[in-house]
Amino acid sequence: MNLRNRKLTEEEFMGIRSDVLTHWPTGKDVDLDEAVEYLKKVPDEKNVAKKLRKAKEEGVTLAQPRAGVALIEDHIELLLHLEKEGGADLLPSTIDSYTRQNRYAECQVGIEESIRLGRSMLNGFPAVNHGVAGCRRVFEAIHVPLQARHGTPDARLLSEIIHASGWTSNEGGGISYNIPYAKSVSMEKTITDWQYCDRLVGYYEERGIELNREPFGPLTGTLVPPSTSNAVAVIEALLAAEQGVKNITVGYGQCGNLLQDIAAIRALESQTDEYLKRFGYEGVYVTTVFHQWMGGFPEDEAKAFGVISLGSTAAALAGATKVIVKTPHEALGIPTKEANAQGIRDTKMTLNMLKGQRMPMSTELADEITIIKAETACMIEKVLEVGKGDLARGTVEGFRLGLIDVPFAPSKYNYGKMMPARDNTGAVRYLNAGNVPLTKELLDFNKAKLEERGNYEHRKVGFQMTVDDIFAVGKGMLIGRPE
Ligand SMILES: CC[C@H]1O[C@@H](n2cnc3c(N)ncnc32)[C@H](O)[C@@H]1O
């Protein structure tokens, strides 16, 4: 394995780049010097990194939806609706699934079909096919900062095009856009490719352009223990910092127990800072993003708004810098622009009513933060050990050994032995740690919490609890109580 956690030299970066830009004809329009000049003209209020920094300093939680359709004019209409009718503080372009798999020829067909049929035949915005000119038209039409949100194992060309277009943030990472999104793409390949995406940001940073990077926190969004997703987020933050990224938003997907969700955000922010400092990455600005409930949603729109409001409450009380908004159409599929805007208005109403409020520190909250940080450290320290000090190599080896193990992940490179279940308060615990190297004390803690539930439900602690928890949501419950 020749993977190293080492900043690519500019020559290495440019060498790879000459190939990357040939992956689709629109790659030839990316001119870094011209892009630097274009990005220098982006006003602060349209720069994601700057708006996040301002929000954190002011103690404000920003609201951002997901949104993407095939054609440029329709996409602009959608984003302007979310900005004006929804009140979105930040805007996305959710990229379509073909682009995520680098299947640009099929994107082209989807674009032509969308024109012919007068509706979006792609489930997102095909940024690579629209190229710099098209992506700049989107960016110049809106009035708030713009971010690419996707799930792309090889996002190198996509990243080149969106950043050259004024989009000042890119979501993803070599773990978080592999394990939950791909079946058989190697970790070595995706970590290498995301080193390129981060090095591109480093290139811009060296020229005075501040861009934001956001590891994808929720992963599979199904009963992921907070320390598992935090470990991935911290590792991706460190890998990005090595490539020169200076503005990072680490993310977490709501699990449902309010205290644990708030603890997870607090633990994530402080532990990311701690590890960045430990490895000498000075001047990296860390913010957090809370993803509203990533599990199954109720079809009933009133119930869906209840879920959205709970997620907004958790984000606000946690003090997250940003919250990713769901919509009342979540159970149905891609939302209409009206439903999407409703999700944002619901979210902002809750955020506004909670403005300035935070969950006060308590023994319970402090204990949960301690537990999450200790579990996270068990994974990261072991990964560093098996990597003989090299975090990138350790991450590949760590997933091979199951030191970090993401539940219900499609990737064959995920170990798949760890099993989670909710305790009697709905907090997600390790039912079976598999090869995740938790200390005996932490294993005993998780066991005891699950036994509390077993005693309450008069049943043995076991995998049936996991199954029941997965189906609970469809019944409008958090914990899968026995029938
Ligand atoms: C990570 C999965 C989330 O992304 C959402 N999503 C995926 N594609 C789009 C899309 N094109 N527009 C709006 N929301 C979208 C989906 O509803 C789910 O909430």
Summarize the structure.
This protein has 483 residues and is α/β, with parallel strands linked by helices. It has helices at 10-20, 32-40, 48-58, 72-86, 97-100, 104-117, 127-141, 156-164, 187-205, 226-242, 258-278, 301-318, 337-353, 363-386, 391-401, 440-457, 463-472, and strands at 62-64, 91-94, 146-149, 169-171, 212-214, 247-253, 285-291, 322-324, 419-422, 428-432. The chain has 17 helices and ten strands.
Structure description:
The structure is a single chain. With about 475 residues, the chain is an alpha/beta fold. Strands 1-8-7-6 form a 4-stranded parallel beta sheet. The protein has a 4-stranded parallel beta sheet with strand order 2-3-4-5. The chain has a two-stranded antiparallel ribbon with strand order 9-10. α7 packs parallel to α8. The longest helix has 24 residues, at about 365-385. β4 (about 170), α9 (about 185-205) and β5 (about 210-215) form a beta-alpha-beta unit. The chain is built from 17 helices and 10 strands. Helix content is about 50%, strand content about 10%. The protein has helices spanning about 10-20, 30-40, 50-60, 70-85, 95-100, 105-115, 125-140, 155-165, 185-205, 225-240, 260-280, 300-320, 335-355, 365-385, 390-400, 440-455, 465-470; strands at about 60-65, 90-95, 145-150, 170, 210-215, 245-255, 285-290, 320-325, 420, 430. The model has no long low-confidence stretch (mean pLDDT about 95). Bound molecules: ligand FWK. The ligand CC[C@H]1O[C@@H](n2cnc3c(N)ncnc32)[C@H](O)[C@@H]1O binds next to loops.
